[in-house]
Design a protein that fits this description.
alpha/beta; five-stranded parallel β-sheet; globular
C-alpha cells in the first residue's frame, strides 16, 4: 500500500505545489492536498483528519506559507501527532532558512525551487528514507481551532449595527 502524504502550502504557491504533487505522485505515493476538498465539507475537520491519516507531512516552504495561520496550525498539529515532517523549499524569496519555526528548523529541507531531474531524485531518496510514523498519541492532542480569516473578523466588527467608539476604531486600525 502506498504511503500517504499530506502537503501543506499557501494558495499563492498552487502552481509550484501542483508540480510537487505530480512528482511525488509519480513516485508512487498517495498525495493529499486541499484540492480534494468538495463542497459541503467541513474543510478544517477534513484537513485535520487528513493530517492524522498521513504517513509523511510535507510543508511547502514559502514566505507566505510561513506567515499563514492555517499553515502554522497544520505543521504544529502534525508535530504534536509525531508525524514525520518533510520541509520542501519551493520559493525562497523572503525566507530566511536560519530562522524557521522550531518544528521545521530541526529537519533538513530539500530545495525544490529548480524542478529538475536531480531535484526529483533527491526528493525520491529523501522520502524513501523517512521512517514510518509513530502511532498516534493516546489521547490525541486537542485539534487546533478553525483559523478564522483575519480580515473576516474585522469586517464582522465593522458591519455591526452598533457605532464603534473611538477606541474600537483605533484598535481596528492598529491591528491592520
Amino acid at each position: 500500500m502506498p504511503r500517504k502524504i499530506f502537503i501543506s502550502y499557501q494558495r499563492l504557491s498552487k502552481e509550484k505545489v501542483t508540480a510537487l504533487v505530480t512528482d511525488v505522485s509519480l513516485l508512487g505515493y498517495d498525495v493529499w492536498f486541499d484540492q480534494e476538498l468538495g463542497g459541503g465539507q467541513n474543510w478544517w475537520n477534513t484537513i485535520l483528519e487528513s493530517i492524522r491519516k498521513c504517513d509523511i507531512f510535507i510543508f511547502a516552504i514559502t514566505e507566505k506559507a510561513l506567515e499563514s495561520m492555517p499553515c502554522k496550525l497544520e505543521y504544529k498539529y502534525a508535530d504534536s501527532l509525531n508525524k514525520p515532517i518533510f520541509p520542501v523549499l519551493i520559493d525562497g524569496n523572503g525566507v530566511s532558512m536560519n530562522i524557521l519555526p522550531p518544528e521545521l528548523s530541526k529537519i533538513h529541507f530539500i530545495d525544490y525551487q529548480n524542478q529538475n531531474r536531480e531535484t526529483a531524485l533527491l526528493i525520491a531518496k529523501s522520502l524513501s528514507q523517512i521512517p514510518q510514523p509513530k502511532p498516534l498519541p493516546d489521547p490525541l492532542p486537542d485539534p487546533p481551532d478553525v483559523p478564522i480569516p483575519y480580515m473576516g473578523t474585522i469586517v464582522k466588527q465593522v458591519e455591526t449595527d452598533l457605532q464603534l467608539n473611538f477606541e474600537s476604531q483605533t484598535s481596528l486600525l492598529n491591528s491592520a
